[in-house]
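Our preliminary data section would be incomplete without showing what the modeling component actually yields. Below, a chain of 154 amino acids is followed by its predicted structure, encoded as tokens that our downstream tools consume directly.
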Amino acid sequence: MPESYSSLKLTPELHNKINNALADGHPLVLAVVDPSGQPVLSFRGSLQTYSDTQLGFWLRIPQGRTLTAIRSNPKVALIYRSPTTPLLQFHGRARIATDENERERVFAAAPEVERRADPEKKGVAIIIDLTLVEGVIAVGPEGPVWCRMAADNA
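Predicted structure:
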């Protein structure tokens, strides 16, 4: 773990920001790198916390570039910003959930609008094991309020 970073465990405040990002109008942006080395960015409206150290999202179109990129390089990054949160970055390793219980849990956690877009559940559940969360979670009277967390094995 990098010096001055706490052990990675998403706080209730972070769970709330992530789980309500789409409804609040601030969906997270996912960055992956495709097999040719080209960065690919996409908004992820279905992104939710899966645990205190994991994120999950439902990928409605499995034929797209995002899944191809994750298969070739599981390292991913996400970014979040809102009027009250200047910048949060999340880094981790993505994997395709093959267990039916994991698939169901990720799908069920997605906002209703995202579930309605794939009623036959033809998509794929992706789980991200977080390795690093950092940024400025707020600006207080004394300046930036930093968020610096790393997985113990990072």
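The longest strand covers residues 124-140. Strands lie at 6-7, 28-33, 39-44, 48-49, 54-59, 75-80, 87-96, 124-140, 143-150. Preliminary results of this kind motivate Aim 1 of the renewal.
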